[in-house]
Amino acid sequence: MMQTASKPLLKVEGLSVEFGASRVIDDLSFSVSSGQTVAIVGESGSGKSVTSLSVMRLADMLGANFPAGRILFGTSKGEADLLRLDQKTMRGIRGKEISMIFQEPMTSLNPVFTIGDQVAEILKLHEGKSNTAALAEAKRLLDMVRLPDAAELLTRYPHQLSGGMRQRVMIAMALACKPKLLIADEPTTALDVTIQAQILNILRDLQKDLGTAIIFITHDMGVVAEMADDVVVMWKGKAVEKGAALDIFDKPAHPYTRTLLSAVPKLGSMTGQDFPKRLPLMVLEDGEPRLAGVERVQDTARYSADPLLSVRDLVVRFDIKKSFLGKVTHRVHAVEKVSFDIHPGETLALVGESGSGKSTIGRTIQQLQKATAGNVSFAGKSLSDMTSAERHRLRQDVQYIFQDPFASLDPRKTVGFSIAEPIRTHGLIHSDKEIATTVDALLERVGLTSAHARRYPHEFSGGQRQRICIARALASNPKLIIADEALSALDVSIQAQIINLFMDLQQERGLAYLFISHDMAVVEKMSHRVAVLYLGQIMEFGYRRQVFETPSHDYTRRLLSAVPIADPRQRKQLAAIEGDIPSPVRAVGNEPVRYAREEIAPGHFVARSA
Predict the structure, then answer these.
(1) Nearest-angstrom CA–CA distance, 380 and 376
(2) What pLDDT is attached to residue 83?
C-alpha cells in the first residue's frame, strides 16, 4: 500500500470486478487521502475506467459483479463499505460527496435540457437551492472553468457547444457541490493546452481550499507529472506498479511502465530537425521492452509540385440569434479570411484552442459546411466551379477521420461493411470477393486482422476503432486525409503506433494530411508546416522548425508554454488568465479586426496585432 500522512478518505482493498465470466480487475488495492491526488494510468482496456465506475457504484448498471474486495469511504455519517450500500443510499453520496467527470461529455449531458438546467439541477437536488440561486451559481461555475459568454451559454443545448466546451461544462457540474472525492476520468482529453492548464489550476486550488481528494485517470503522462502525488500503473486489470510520482518517473521498475513512459511525445525532442521523423517504438515482447521498427526522415512533401489544396480568404459565419421579427442580431465568426496551401505528401497542422475554427475549416473543405465567403480549390479546380459529379469525386479524393471514432461508425453494421462502403459508393470495385479481399488487406495494413471484419464497433477499444476509421478513410484511395483530433482519445502507446502508421502511409501513397490537433508535442513530431489559429484567424504560419524553435507571436508562445512536461520536477504554476474571455460571437455589424500577416523569414508569417 502507498503511504499517506493522514487517514485515507478512500481505501480500495483487494477489489476484483467481473463481467460475466470475464475478470477485468484482479486484486486491486490503493488509497487516497484528503488533499491528495492519485493518478491511475494504463492503456485502453487495462481497467482504469471500471475502477472509477466501481467506486461510484455505476458499474453495477453495466452488469458488473464484485466477487472480492472492499471500497471503504469516509462518508459524512462515518466510514462505509460502498459495495455494501444500496443504490438509494449511493444516490445521496454520488454528486455530493463523490463526484465524477466522465470521459465522453456528449453522452453524459442530456441533449434535451439546456446547460443551465443541467448544472442547476445538481445544486437544487443536493444543496436545496432555489431555481434563481441555482442558476446564478451555475453562471459562476461556468465562469470559473473559463467558458466565454457564460450567461448566454446557460440557455444553449449541448449540441451547440464544441467538444472542449462540453468537457468544461462537465467539470463545472462535478465541482458544483464541492465534493470530498473527485474522480476525473480523462477530464482534459478534449481540451487544448491553455484551457487544460487553467483546469489543472482550478483543481489544485480546490484541493488547497477544501482538501478535496482526487483520483485522476489519464493517459497523458505530462498531466500525471503535473498533478499526481502517487501513481498506480494498471495493465491487464492488475496494478503492476505503485508509488510516488517522482519515483515512477525516475526509476520505473516494471517493463510495462518503462514502455509507457518511452512512448510519451516530448515537446522539444525534434529541435534541430528540418523534417518530421518516424521513430522506432518500444514494445513489450516476452515481458521485456525492446525497440521495433525503423527510423526514417519524413521528407515526403513535394513543394515543387502545384498545391493539392488551396484555401483563399475563407470566411465561415453562423447566425445564432434573431430578433422577435426574425432578423439576425448575432453571429459566430468561426473563420475569418484564412488562406493556406497543402502540397502532395505534406502534413499541415492546424493548432489552436477549442472554438478557434480548426474543425470548421476541415468540415468546409470536406463540403460538410458551407463557406460564407472565400474559395477552396482542389487540384487546381475551385469547388464553386465543380459539377455535382466532380464534387462527388472530390469526396473520394478527400477523406475525413473524426475525433470520436465510435460516433462515426454505424453501431448496427459490421466494421467490414463500414470499410467497404466508400468502395461501393464510389464504384471502385464491383466484385464482392475483391471487395472482401481489399477490406482484409486494409484491416491488416492498420494493424488489425481479417477476422475483425465480422465484428461490430462496440467490440473494439477506442484505439482499435480509430484504426478502423483510418482503414475506411484509405478505402477510397484518397489524396488528402483530414484528421480532426484523430489521436486525442488514444493512449500514448497506441498514439505512437498511429503516428507511425500515418507516416508509413504518407511514404507509400504520397498522402497529404490536414492534421487538426491541440497536442503540440504530437504536432511537432509529425507535421511539415504549422498554422496557429486564434478566434478564426491565422496568427502564425511556417515550417515546423520555425514555429516551434522561433515562435514569434505571443499567442504561439503562450500555447507552447502551457504544454505539461512529463517530469514531476518541472511543475508549472500558470497564472490564472484574468479579464473577459474572448468570444467569436459578435453583434451584426460589429466586424472583428483582421490582422495583416508579415513574412519575417522565408515561409514564416506572423500576424501583426493592431
Answers:
(1) 10
(2) 94
